[in-house]
Amino acid sequence: MPSLVTLNNGQKMPLVGLGCWKISNDICAEQVYQAIKLGYRLFDGATDYGNEVEVGQGIKKAIDEGLVKRSDLFVVSKLWNSYHHPDHVKLALKRNLQDLGLDYIDLYYIHFPIAFKFVPFEEKYPPGFYTGVDDAREGILSEAKVPILDTYRALEECVDNGLIKSIGISNFNGVLVQDLLNGCRIKPVALQIEHHPYLTQEKLVEYCKLKGIQVVAYSSFGPQSFIELDSQLAKSTPSLLEHPIIKKIAAAHRSSTPSEVLLRWATQRGIAVIPKSTKKERLLQNLNVEDSITLTEEELNEISSLNKNIRFNDPWEWLNSKFPTFH
User: Fold this and answer.
1) What sequence ranges are listed for the domain NADP-dependent oxidoreductase (predicted)?
2) What is the pLDDT of residue 225?
3) How do residues 23-56 score in pLDDT, each as one tens digit?
4) With 0-12 CB in 10 A as exposed, 13-18 as middle and 19+ as buried, what is 196?
5) What is the rounded (10 degree) CA torsion for 98, 103, 105, 111?
6) Which of 2, 177, 247, 253 has the most CB atoms around its CB within 10 Å?
């Protein structure tokens, strides 16, 4: 079992979880069920992943068989951009709960600090990068004029109502985190960001630690997650899994793999990780990474020195709409 970190509201969260992004619907339920059998307790999902029904089926099967209780699990979901208006926040959350078959969600993130125009469920769900037929024809995304704080305060009401235990933020830059902290009533417990040796975001990580906000890394293997999405940047960037420095450090730790080195570089610095895999051997390897390898301070610094500020998930590149989230 992975280590537990204590969030700023006292809730305990596993340092290693299973990321549900890009787990196909046909295998997702069984994948989640098998992961629970292996010892996974955190499942990181989202409205936009389109597989929450199946995630819920896997959880239900494990609970029905007595493998775990609901209280043993830490279930994560995310509010998609189309539902930022306060009138739509609880509506979207209740759809997440319905799909997952749960009464509450442990941690609920604002997926991006960007408000899209609302899309009714009956028109398209999850809507993804769709804000209406006319917009789809033009290849644009229409925004809704909703300040982040309005969305966040609607989520605070959801905490009050017992629908979510904790609020998180995702893909926020430092000034947005700072501004939110100045206006919120309930402090966010976590910030999920793209984080790997090509994008270390050290000052943002340090700021979150100072403010008691847990950093959670996604895309820990860098370009690997985005090659299958046909990202030209990812295709042209050298693989971290094949990087000479990563491979050298892996070889220095006997049977360790480059993926273990990359995950341990994060967890050893107190950053949670949510890698995805469909292979049992790799799932176990990821889950037990804290026990299998400990990097030296020199190795940690050597890996961090690979930073190039390369970001593979940048809203500036979404269709023909320019969102300056990180610029």
Assistant:
1) 22-307
2) 86
3) 999 999 999 999 999 999 999 999 999 999 999 9
4) buried
5) 30
6) 2
Q: How far apart are the first and last CA of the chain?
A: 39
- Decide the pairing of beta strands 272-273 and 214-218: parallel
* CB-based contacts of 254, cutoff 8 Å, min separation 6: none
Residue 322 lies in a domain: no
Q: Does 130 fall in a domain?
A: yes
For residue 259, give its domain range. 4-317
Q: In this model, does residue 1 exceed pLDDT 80?
A: no
CA distance 115 to 94: 19
Would 324 be classed as within a structural domain? no
**Among the listed residues 259, 234, 233, 237, the one whose alpha carbon sits nearest the alpha carbon of residue 246:** 259
Give me the amino acid identity at 33.
Y
Q: How many CB atoms lie within 10 A of CB 128?
A: 16
Which domain CATH number covers 268?
Answer: 3.20.20.100
Give 93: exposed, middle or buried? Use CB within 10 Å, 0-12, 13-18, 19+.
buried
Rounded (5°) CA angle 215-201-175: 80
CA distances 155 to 61, 110, 161, 163, 273, Å, are: 29, 9, 10, 9, 24
Give dist(CA 91, CA 47) in Å, integer: 12
The answer to whether residue 49 is domain-embedded is: yes
Q: 111: annotated binding-site residue?
A: yes
Read off the pTM.
Answer: 0.97
Decide if 112 contacts 170 (C-beta within 8 A).
Answer: yes
Query: Which one is catalytic: 33, 49, 83, 152?
Result: 49
Question: 106: which 2 tokens?
Answer: 């442990």
49 is catalytic: yes
pLDDT tens per residue across span 102-142: 999 999 999 999 999 999 999 999 999 999 999 999 999 99
Rounded alpha-carbon distances, angstroms, from residue 47 to 50, 139, 287: 6, 22, 24
In this predicted model, what pLDDT tens digit does every residue of 175-206 receive, in sequence order? 999 999 999 999 999 999 999 999 999 999 99
What angle separates helix 258-267 from helix 244-252, to the nearest 10 degrees? 90
